[in-house]
Amino acid sequence: MVVAGFASIIFFKIFFTLQYGIVYVTIMVEIKEYIDINGHNRFERWFNRLNTVAALKVRKYLARLENANFSRVEGVGGGVFECKINFGPGYRVYFGKDGAKLIILLAGGTKKRQQVDIKQAKELWLEYKKRRKED
What we know:
This protein has 3 helices and 9 strands. The protein is an alpha+beta fold. It has a single domain (2-134), classed as YaeB-like fold (2-Layer Sandwich). Strands 1-2-5-9-8-7-6 form a 7-stranded mixed β-sheet. A two-stranded antiparallel ribbon has the order 3-4.
């Protein structure tokens, strides 16, 4: 489903669990794929070209992000973050955070193309922020 420049993956969820008299609250982060001004979804295009095993590994790391686990994430500048996936050629997922509970997936890549991918992700993030401000 595409809405105003986004493809939605998961919606915000809150879970309450009770164990041994303690209430645990789990807040899941919403993840959306960014669709640029030309209607292209760079993350989806990259993800769909992965083989099944690689796609499952990437999806596992996206699930960690959904659960607010940023242990494999580093900032690369300009408000863009890189999630490093230690598998195959060193897969990377690039995203921006719009507040505490929303992640915008920008692109994916590998260690070999890291600098080019980071540059493109930064450009997409600037475009996203500009479009968001206009709305």
